[in-house]
Amino acid sequence: MKKLLMTALLLLPLLLCHCTQPAQLMVYPGVMPAELCYLDEVVPGIKVDLKYCGNDNFVGRPIDGYTTGKRAILRKDAAAALAKVQKELRAKGLGLLVWDAYRPYRALLDFYAWSETEDDSTRSTFYPNITKRGIYENKYIGLSSEHCWGVAVDATLINLRTGQELDMGGRHDLLDERSATEYAGLTPRQQANRRLLRDTMAAAGMRNYSKEWWHFYVTPLGICHRYDFPLSDTLAPGTPARR
Predict the structure, then answer these.
(1) Domain tally for the chain?
(2) Could you say which of 92, 123, 129, 152 would form a disulfide bridge with 146 (CB–CB 3.0 to 4.6 Å)?
(3) CA gap 28, 8 in Å, rounded
(4) Over the stretch 176-196, which tens digit does the pLDDT of each residue have?
């Protein structure tokens, strides 16, 4: 079973992106890879609340890789896209609230280890209609993620004047059919808010994952790099990933 899991970990990145070569696992202790950046340096003032740094997530505790920093990190092209989104939204009195960005690869392993435990304490809030196995079977969480490549972000809309989140018809990481971007049970206002977020992101080159209205990513081309360094708010500038 473990051998099959490791094979899946190696092959899935090829299936989930436009990579021309297998994803490499890049570990950068204490430095920021040159192709990545702190999001707040590219989009000053952007609101960030990284959910996996605390207890308000589907696991119910801080996730491995998120315990030593709270600043969002992204690949520079993804951060530039969010800058365009923020500028477009600001003209409407709105802005982004970011819940997740770069995700250390070790976090995926932590998710999987949790899924094999008997702890179901967060089920009523985050996955009320499926089992832990169903989380993977329904592709809400996987053994690979654009987040680990630094090209994905989880985000919602906020009112810049009040700081309040817009009504999107569901919370972050609600692992349920209600989280589909085009879920039929939304009110007209909720539907309009989801589409505004999706369309503004799309105009800046970020694609939506249809099962999760909050998840957007820049399509990675060429060689994919999975990163596995823990978040830190004071990473020193590093060198580009090896190719």
Answers:
(1) 1
(2) 152
(3) 24
(4) 999 999 999 999 999 999 999
